[in-house]
Design goal:
This protein is 50% helix and 13% strand. A five-stranded parallel sheet has the order 2-1-3-4-5, with helices on both faces. Strands 7-8-9-6-10 form a five-stranded parallel sheet, sandwiched between helices. It has a four-stranded parallel sheet with strand order 13-14-16-18. α26 links the parallel β13 and β14. α22 crosses α24. The chain is elongated and about 110 Å long. Keywords: DNA-binding, Leucine-rich repeat, NAD, Plant defense, Repeat.
């Protein structure tokens, strides 16, 4: 746990006479059991000056747990501690977690009951001095501010053990967010994080959109860890799509409420507490991250629970599907791929455990980074894959990827999440674009896909929303190389027999199928690159079984020379019942 420059993880502020021997002692032990370094006043070395030692301990802690009990306000010492803790919160982002031990938070917030009695005594004792009167006002303001921060109310739990368990988990989560993120250390603040940091200053609701593996969650965590200490209620809800699919939407909504309200939530509470929740959250300054929301219904349910947030609150939503964000955010930011310099640093950290390649590995490292295409996930996977491997292994694997189009399984597993969410027709369109139409004019591709029987206009828009394709400034359809490799893998996995795959584009595969009459009615499209050095004579029977062939193209890529020759029979058209495109 100890990976930071501060001496303590947690400072515990409490009234010793109320809680030292029971609740606070149990809390301290529970924190210690989870390797969380906490400071309480009986850690003072004999002879230390109490005031300076305590303020130094607060300064040297990541966060403070303030245990408000019945007699907390009777101690000037505790109140001075609280004032200093809140000053650290304001100036340094020091995290404050209030714990209301057997006391109503409103009594702390508005100084009622025992708190009212304590301040009545202070006001009598200190009435003769203006500076002391100001001190009392300062204490009251501190209590009001602290009691408005999201915390834990012990009265809502069956016993101390249960609430302490929840507090410890809360501390662990917040510490995990506070510790420096490794990616951030490598690249400092990349242009994505820098841009979103600027947006947060003025934009209440921000959508972070991008392909799988591009770093959306990492960026959201960076923003959350940097800013959450300045908000009253905070929540970072991860893997929403996965949890919603596993446990249902009500479970996810309950998780959101549990994080924000710090109380156990039943299924009926989502509707029963709706008005109370929305009113309460509107008055608060809250920071919420909804991570990996890729379904409009999911987001509708969560936004309905939250209602309208106050003007000083912030909401970040990450998604692979731009359409999901419609009407829910004020601005959508598309995450960019990483630049070469930062990509090489991240890759090197994984491959060599340092931020640059080992001597002699510079060229193969550049090739690997090029294969990753600026996608952080791919950089990490490839770096780990090549760690401690000899150059011969690097060369062999990179040749497979560059020449055969074979992708790395761990990368593909993540990338396929968007593809798996498509309808059958959308999947077919995606595969067609990957095989035949990457870099082609959008209008021309639309007409061809329409001729194939697809609803191309809406289909292309959906693929773009899901970041499976992009449309360039000159209106050409583009696709990340990793996604294209994924498409090749999907078709390759259809059958080991090349003649039974739906699409062909590899010259050797095509020569094998056409040259040896291995074609079948599974083949729907062939694109043959004539810049490859081949000479093949195709018999008429080679196309005899290709009843579903709808796309056939022999071409020379721009900037390349014709090196290949294909000899076709004179009349092949009678074989093509469904052919829509021939070039």
């Amino acid at each position: 746990m100890r990976i930071s420059h501060k001496k303590y993880d947690v400072f515990i502020s409490f009234r010793g006479e109320d809680t030292r021997t029971n609740f606070t002692a149990q809390l301290h032990q529970a924190l210690s059991d989870r390797s969380i370094e906490s400071y309480i006043d009986y850690n003072l070395v004999k002879g230390d000056e109490v005031g300076p030692a305590l303020t130094k301990a607060i300064d040297d802690s990541h966060m403070s747990l303030v245990v408000f009990s019945k007699d907390y306000a009777t101690s000037k010492w505790c109140l001075d501690e609280l004032v200093h803790i809140l000053q650290c919160r304001k100036l340094n982002g020091h995290v404050v977690i209030p714990v209301f031990y057997n006391i109503d938070p409103s009594h702390v917030r508005h100084q009622k009951e025992s708190y009212q009695m304590a301040f009545a005594r202070f006001e009598r004792e200190l009435a003769h001095s203006k500076s002391h009167v100001d001190k009392v006002s300062e204490w009251k303001a501190a209590l009001n501010l602290a009691a408005n921060i999201s915390g834990w109310d012990s009265r809502k739990y069956r016993d101390d053990t249960q609430v302490i368990g929840n507090i410890v988990e809360d501390v662990l989560q917040k510490l995990a967010l506070m510790y420096p993120n490794e990616l951030k250390d490598i690249v400092k603040v990349d242009e994505n994080s820098e841009h979103i940091e600027l947006l947060l200053k003025t934009i209440p609701r921000i959508g972070i959109w991008g392909m799988s593996g591009i770093g959306k969650t990492t960026i959201a965590k960076q923003m959350f860890s940097k800013n959450f200490a300045h908000y009253d209620n905070v929540c970072f809800l991860e893997k929403i799509s996965e949890d919603s699919e596993k446990f249902g939407p009500i479970y996810v909504c309950n998780q959101l409420l549990r994080e924000l309200l710090k109380r156990e939530i039943t299924a009926s509470d989502v509707h029963g507490l709706h008005t109370f929740i929305t009113r309460r959250l509107f008055r608060k300054k809250v920071f919420i991250v909804l991570d990996d929301v890729n379904n409009t219904t999911q987001l509708d349910d969560l936004c309905r629970v939250l209602g309208d947030l106050g003007p000083n609150s912030r909401l970040i939503i990450t998604t692979r599907d731009r359409h999901t964000l419609g009407g829910k955010v004020d601005e959508i930011y598309e995450v960019k791929t990483w630049k070469l310099r930062d990509s090489l640093k991240l890759f090197s950290l994984r491959a060599f455990k340092q931020d640059h390649p080992l001597k002699g590995y510079e060229r193969v490292s550049e090739r690997a980074v090029e294969c990753a295409g600026g996608v952080p996930l791919a950089l990490e996977v490839l770096g780990s894959h090549f760690h401690s491997r000899k150059q011969e292994f690097w060369e062999s694997e990179l040749n497979l990827y560059e020449n055969k189009g074979e992708a790395f399984p761990d990368i593909q597993k993540v990338l396929r999440t968007s593809y798996n969410g498509l309808s059958w027709r959308q999947k077919e369109m995606f595969l067609d674009i990957a095989f035949f139409f990457k870099g082609e004019n959008k209008d021309i591709v639309t007409r061809i896909l329409d001729a194939f029987g697809f609803n191309a206009t809406s289909g292309i828009e959906i693929l773009e929303d899901k970041t499976l394709i992009t449309i360039s400034n000159n209106d050409r359809i583009q696709m990340h190389d990793l996604l294209q490799k994924m498409a090749f893998d999907i078709v390759r996995e259809e059958y080991n027999d090349r003649g039974k795959r739906s699409r062909l584009r590899d010259a050797k595969d095509i020569c094998d199928v056409l040259g040896n009459n291995k074609g079948s009615d599974a083949i729907e499209g062939i694109i043959f690159d004539l810049s490859q050095k081949v000479d093949i004579h195709v018999q008429a029977d080679a196309f005899k079984l290709m009843h579903k062939l709808r796309f056939l193209k022999f071409h020379i890529p721009k900037g390349k020379k014709k090196l290949g020759t294909v000899h076709l029979p004179e009349n092949i058209m009678p074989f093509f019942d469904k052919l829509k495109y021939l070039e």
